[in-house]
Specification:
By secondary structure, the chain is mostly helical. The chain has one domain: Cytochrome p450. It is built from 15 helices and 7 strands. The N and C termini lie far apart (43 Å). Belongs to the cytochrome P450 family. It is a peripheral membrane protein. Pfam families: p450. InterPro entries: Cyt_P450, Cyt_P450_CS, Cyt_P450_E_grp-I, Cyt_P450_sf, Insect_CytP450_Detox.
């Protein structure tokens, strides 16, 4: 992932994707080699601390709307459903510039229905995934889509419309659509400031393109797949992590009390719930990291060997073209790295506790680390922090333990509703 990155640059999907018919499938996850390097360098500045600060107020406004909706029924709340609604509203607003108000809809909108469909890992979708990875050249020749054709058509259309409307109207917003338009018009976006948290975004020598990508223009079509990735990153995995965070805080009331007190103190010191307020709550941040370890949403990382590799001091080698799977969930549950791995213990991530390199892989690591990880972390932290300012969280008796997992889902997601009880606390706001 890091030291020998040049031998394992690619993730293993790009060779089997036809970008002309399946534009959603062309993104940083599927791009390979020099093309990936080029686009990562172009897109990284979209996720700096400065850009996130501009987006947090909209997350906060939607968090306020979530609390208003929850006021109507605090005794039995399906937070799995409510967090999915919140996450979809956030990504619709910040990625696509749309106000869909899924939090308050009574009938499922097309945006939500098709968004959810993109994460349902049906047998047909599983077979498509296997076919693309095992027979990439044949899959590309046959134009086999990685995503469902209905998902491809719908999100391709709304992303094109969002980009077109923004250019024609001349309006400006703090969202990804605006950043895409700026990137197209200027060719690049400069980093803002010199925040330490932005170090993972900045180019290292091994990520700089070796030659100019003369045939790869920043057209609307080229932006569609990247915009869709923000839907993927910002919807399902983040909403489920929010639910698991509330689940563990409910099972561990002393930890919940400590996290809530820290959030309330940070909020009162700053007078606002914003990016820096979350920074001032480090123990709460440890709770989020520990949830991501204990409830690993995606169980593995994939890499393809791009240059023959021999393990130092051995004759064991991996040939170029061979696939490698990294068992994220196995590493996160390994007692060699985490003592009592089944226990929820935020102190594992305290600043003075050392961990082995690559023992926490919720977002991957190295140059291929998810560049949107702080966007996702900020969304998770802000939403649940907004709840904790108003409520104590406990499990409702209808929630049966252990949680039953949904076998038709790509990620580790509970099957059916997960009910909680919210108890009003002192008004911190």
């Amino acid at each position: 992932l890091i030291k020998d990155f040049q031998h394992f640059v690619d993730l293993g999907l790009g060779d089997g994707i036809d970008e002309q018919t399946n534009p959603l499938d062309i993104n940083l996850f599927s791009m390979t080699g020099n093309r990936w390097r080029y686009m990562r360098n172009k897109l990284s500045p979209l996720f700096t601390t400065g850009k996130l600060r501009h987006m947090v107020p909209q997350m906060k406004n939607l968090g306020d709307r979530l609390v208003q909706v929850l006021e109507e029924n605090q005794s039995q709340v399906d937070l799995k459903d409510m967090f999915q609604r919140y996450a979809m509203d956030v990504i619709a607003s910040i990625a696509f510039g749309m106000n869909v108000n899924i939090l308050q809809e009574t009938e499922e909108s097309e945006f939500r229905k098709i968004g959810k469909k993109s994460f349902r890992f049906t047998l047909k979708q599983y077979l498509r995934f296997i076919f693309i990875t095992v027979f990439p050249k044949l899959a590309k020749m046959m134009r086999v889509p990685l995503n469902d054709p209905e998902v491809n058509e719908y999100f391709s259309r709304i992303i094109r419309e969002a980009l077109s409307h923004r250019k024609q109207s001349g309006m400006s917003r703090n969202d990804f659509v605006q950043l895409f338009v700026t990137l197209q018009q200027k060719g690049s976006i400069a980093f803002e400031g010199d925040d330490q948290d932005d170090k993972y975004l900045k180019s290292e020598d091994d990520m700089k393109p070796q030659k100019k990508m003369a045939n790869y223009e920043l057209t609307d079509a080229a932006m569609i797949g990247h915009a869709f990735v923000f839907l993927v990153a910002g919807f399902d995995s983040t909403s489920i992590t929010m639910m698991y965070l509330c689940y563990e805080l409910a099972l561990n009331p002393e930890i919940q009390k400590k996290a809530r007190e820290e959030i309330v103190k940070a909020y009162k010191n700053r007078g606002v719930l914003d990016y820096d307020t979350l920074r001032d709550a480090p123990y709460y941040g440890q709770c989020v990291q520990e949830v991501m370890r204990l409830h690993t949403i995606i169980g593995f990382l994939s890499r393809v060997c791009t240059k023959d590799y021999t393990f130092p001091g051995t004759s064991l080698s991996i040939k170029a073209g061979q696939a490698v799977l990294i068992p994220t969930i196995g590493i996160h549950q390994d007692p060699a790295y985490y003592e009592n791995p089944d226990k929820f213990d935020p102190d594992r991530f305290a600043p003075d506790v050392s961990r082995r390199n690559c023992s926490f892989l919720a977002f991957g690591d190295g140059p291929r680390v998810c560049i949107a990880m702080r966007f996702a972390m900020t969304e998770i932290k802000l939403c649940v922090a907004r709840l904790l300012l108003d409520y104590s969280i406990s499990l409702h008796p209808k929630t049966k333990l252990p949680l039953e997992m949904d076998s038709n889902h790509f990620a580790d997601v509970p099957n059916g509703p997960v009910y909680f009880t919210l108890t009003k606390m002192g008004d911190a706001l």
